[in-house]
Amino acid sequence: MTEHNRLLDQFTEIEWIIFDFGGVIINVDFKLTHEAFKALGIDNLDQKFTQTTQSGFFDRLEIAHASPDEFRAAIRKESNLSLSDQQIDAAWNVMLLDIPRFRIDILLELKKKYKIALLSNTNLIHYNYYRADLEKIYGYQTFDQIFDKTFFSHQIELRKPNKDIYEFVTSQVGTRTSKILFIDDTFKNIEAAQSYGWNTIFWKGFELDQLL
Question: Which of 93, 117, 138 is the last residue in one of the domains?
Answer without folding.
Answer: 93
